């Protein structure tokens, strides 16, 4: 076990509050980013080059079938997992116990190690505004997406949050400081 306990922060392929999630991650000490393949693409589209993120975070990519970084959860390195933002696809996989991506695999391993997870589910209301690369758009999550978000709320060692404020509250950051971010 290491002397320094870290936070694992997983990002999926959503732009929903992506900048704000990165700003929150930046405010925490000792954060490692776990990126799904879609997250690596979306980060570039939204103007967050991986090279720049590597200056602040240790980054794990979804590049192997067995996802070796999940072994870190068994070594006592992480005190919590934050999945933010979490797409409806990742939430559905979590609900069904499918761990075929780096993000869903670290979520499964965190649960098996009884490490608390906070999941910021993107699809949480019948109508929502979200940030797209070209600006704000309206989205209308499907009933199945909303149902999966509700189902995940019953999982052990999992706290599902559905707003940026509830994410900040769950993490313990009282206010999003705009000046602290380099993003």
Descriptive notes:
By secondary structure, this protein is α/β, with parallel strands linked by helices. It has one domain: Rossmann fold (3-Layer(aba) Sandwich), CATH 3.40.50.1950. It has seven helices and eight strands, in the order E-H-E-H-H-E-E-H-H-E-E-E-H-E-H. The strands form two sheets. The protein has a six-stranded parallel β-sheet, with helices on both faces. A two-stranded antiparallel ribbon has the order 6-7. A hairpin with a 2-residue loop joins strand 6 (128-132) and strand 7. The longest helix has 11 residues, at 102-112. Residues 176-182 have low confidence and may be disordered. It comes from Sedimenticola thiotaurini. It holds the Pfam family Flavoprotein.
Mean of residue pLDDT values: 89
Low-confidence stretches: 176-182
CATH topology: Rossmann fold
Strand content: 15-25%
Q: What is the number of domains?
A: 1
Considering DSSP H and I runs of 4 or more, what fraction of the residues is helical? 25-40%
Adjacency order of strands in the biggest sheet: 3-2-1-4-5-8
By CATH, the architecture is named: 3-Layer(aba) Sandwich
Descriptive labels:
single chain, six-stranded parallel β-sheet, 7 helices, 8 strands, disordered C terminus, Flavoprotein, Flavin_trans-like
The gist of it:
The chain has 183 residues and is an alpha/beta fold. It has 7 helices and 8 strands; from the N terminus they run E-H-E-H-H-E-E-H-H-E-E-E-H-E-H.
Topology:
Layout: E1 6-11, H1 18-27, E2 31-35, H2 37-45, H3 50-53, E3 58-61, E4 78-86, H4 88-96, H5 102-112, E5 117-121, E6 128-132, E7 135-139, H6 143-152, E8 158-161, H7 164-171
Parallel strand pairs: 1-2, 1-4, 2-3, 4-5, 5-8
Antiparallel strand pairs: 6-7
């Amino acid at each position: 076990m290491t002397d320094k306990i870290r936070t694992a922060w997983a990002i999926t392929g959503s732009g929903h509050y992506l900048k704000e999630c990165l700003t929150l991650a930046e405010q925490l000490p000792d954060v490692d980013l776990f990126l799904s393949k879609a997250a690596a693409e979306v980060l570039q589209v939204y103007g967050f080059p991986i090279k720049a993120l590597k200056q602040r975070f240790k980054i794990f990519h979804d590049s192997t079938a067995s996802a070796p970084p999940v072994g870190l959860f068994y070594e006592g390195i992480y005190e919590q997992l934050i999945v933010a933002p979490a797409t409806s696809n990742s939430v559905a996989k979590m609900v069904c116990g499918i761990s075929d991506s780096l993000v869903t695999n670290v979520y499964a391993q965190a649960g098996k190690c009884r490490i608390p997870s906070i999941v910021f589910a993107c699809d949480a209301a019948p109508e929502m505004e979200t940030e797209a690369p070209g600006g704000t758009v309206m989205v209308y999550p499907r009933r199945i997406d909303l149902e999966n978000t509700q189902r995940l709320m019953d999982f052990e060692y999992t706290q599902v949050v559905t707003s940026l404020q509830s994410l900040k509250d769950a993490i313990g950051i009282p206010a999003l400081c705009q000046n602290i971010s380099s993003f």
